[in-house]
Amino acid sequence: MTNLRRSARYLVLVLLALIFVTPLAWMVVTSVKTYGDAQRIPPTLLPDSLSGYGYRQILGNTSNPVLRWFVNSMLAATLHALLVLATASMAAYALARLRFRGRGLLFALVVGTLFIPPTSLIIPNFVIADRLAWLDTLAVVIVPGAASAFGVFFLRQFFLSIPAELEEAAVLDGANHWQIFTRVLLPLSKPALATLAVLSFLTNWNDFLWPVYVLFSPERLTLPAGLGLLQGAYVTDYPVIMAGAVLASVPVLILFVAAQRHIIQGVSRSGLKG
Fold first, then answer.
1. Is the pTM of this model over 0.85?
2. Domain region containing 66
3. How confident is the model over 74-97, as pLDDT tens digits?
4. Coil, strand, or helix at residue 7?
5. CA dihedral 51, 59, 254, 20 (to 10 degrees)
């Protein structure tokens, strides 16, 4: 019976893996098809011959500066993740360790903002960005989302799992709150910080709606917004679109593989296990 259960478990895992991997495999295969192969009905799994047509169109077309969009997205997502770590870690430390009146109410208000639909904030954020003269600059896709309520909640849960005795020992050694925060809590919170950094990077990297509203110049677009321009009004060039999707997926896959161990540790210790 045990072997039967184990076999059934492995079968389910294999099926789930196929469900998740198949779209990625189809994307990669389509990106190396010719335009004619990609338009065939019924569609074919494998192309008659490998073609670099999609990648040549992506990388060699000066009217669509895909590499510039790639650099813009990397810069915006990286700086956004760093800002989220800075703001969320300090707020989480205050809500987890400092004692002050209204702390519970303040934390409830922060968590309550998670229930506000992000699309309802587009107009207020647009008006603020316009008055700050940030429209059509990278600052407008870096700063507005840096106050992350989820990041505060996530890091607060992790900070609460760290024994308070470590801080008490630091106080006896003469450390103040800033020294406790930077020299005790942050070094012990590397898994949670890495997890939040990856999640923040992915959120900014995959954001499409906000950049479309606030970035106007072709050379300032981020990759998701720029790839949307490759979709024609009447014709869809699937190899080109899939080549762009492959290009957009590479940094995400590398980042996830590099931080996988920290992500598992961070989620398991923050009380967010399913």
1. no
2. 32-269
3. 999 999 999 999 999 999 999 998
4. helix
5. -50
